[in-house]
C-alpha cells in the first residue's frame, strides 16, 4: 500500500471527538436560544474550584468559555486550598437554593481535609450535572431517568455514532471508578452490550481486552494498553488523560492506550487529545440544559 493510502486508512479509523463535541455544543446552543425565546429561561452552570491545581484551572476556564458560547450563564467560584468542609458545604447549599443556577459542578480532586463524597451528596440531585450524587448513580443503575456522568455519556455518544446499535457486543471497561468506569459499564449494559469490568486485581488483563468488540480504557496509566491487547477491528475509546515528559523534555498529553500501535489493529479509536476530553465538556453543557428544562417542567430536547 502507498504511504498516502496507508495514511487515509488510519484517518478513517480515528474517531474525531473534537469535531463531534463542536457539533453537540452547537445543538445545545440552538436549544438554549429556543428555550430563551420561548420560555425566557437561561440555563446557568456554577463551577466550584477549590485550590490552585494548574490542570484544574485550565479545565475550569474552558468550561466557563464554552458555557457562555452556548448562551448559558456561567458562575465561577474559586476558593483557597485551605477551605474547610463547612465552608464548601455552605457554598453548595447556597447554590442549591439559587434559582439562576441549574447545574453545579465541584471540580475534583478536592484538598485532603475535605470529604468528597459528603460534598457531592450535598449537591441537589436535580442540579448534579456531573451525575456523581448517589441518587443519580442509583437511578442510572436501575434504568431510571438520571443525570449521567459526562465522560461516560460522551463515550457512549461516540460509540453509537460510529457503530450504530451496540446490542450483543462484548464491551470491556478498564477501570471501576465511580466517575468513569462504573457508570460507563452501566451505560453499555443499558445499550445491551455484554459487559466485563476489569481493574487492578484482574488476572490477565491483555486476555480480557482481546475479547472486546468495544474497549474503554479509563485507568490513568500512560499507554498501558498495547497494540497486541486489541482484537483486530475492535473499537477503542481512550479516556486517559496523562501528562508525561516527551523525548524532547517537553510535557505531552497521552492516553491509557499506546495509540500508534493500537491504531494499526483497531477498527476505530479515539485520540488523546481530541477524543473523549472535548466530549466531557460538551456533555456537561447538555446536562445543564437538561437540568434547566426539568426545573421548569419542560421536556429536555433530543440532542
Ligand atoms: N477525558 C476526560 O474527560 C476524563 C479523563 N479522565 C482520565 O481517565 C483516567 C481514569 O480516571 P478515573 O476513573 O478518575 O481514575 P481512578 O484512579 O479513580 O480509577 C482508575 C481505575 O483504574 C484501575 N487501574 C489502575 N491501574 C491499573 C492497572 N495497572 N491495571 C488495571 N487496572 C488499573 C483502578 O483499579 P482499582 O479499582 O483496582 O484500584 C481503578 O479502578 C485518568 O487518566 C483520568 O485523568 C478522568 C475523567 C474525565
Ligand atoms: N467534578 C468534576 N467533573 C469532571 O468532569 C472532571 C473533574 N471534576 N476533574 C477533572 C476531570 C478531567 N476532566 C477533563 C475534561 C476535559 C478534558 C479536555 O477537554 N481535554 C482535551 C485536552 C486538554 C489539554 O490539552 O489539557 C482533550 O482531551 O482534547 C480533559 C479532562 C474533567 N474532569
TrEMBL record:
Named in its record, the pathway it takes part in is: One-carbon metabolism; tetrahydrofolate interconversion
UniProt cross-references to CDD domains, sorted A to Z: NAD_bind_m-THF_DH_Cyclohyd (cd01080)
GO molecular function, one example? Answer: methylenetetrahydrofolate dehydrogenase (NADP+) activity
**Record flagged with keyword Hydrolase:** yes
Residue ranges occupied by any Tetrahydrofolate dehydrogenase/cyclohydrolase NAD(P)-binding domain in the UniProt entry: 149-294
What is this protein's function per UniProt?
A: Catalyzes the oxidation of 5,10-methylenetetrahydrofolate to 5,10-methenyltetrahydrofolate and then the hydrolysis of 5,10-methenyltetrahydrofolate to 10-formyltetrahydrofolate.
Subunit structure comment from the entry? Homodimer.
Into which family does the record put it? Belongs to the tetrahydrofolate dehydrogenase/cyclohydrolase family.
Identify this protein by name: Bifunctional protein FolD
Which source organism does the UniProt entry give? Aquibaculum arenosum
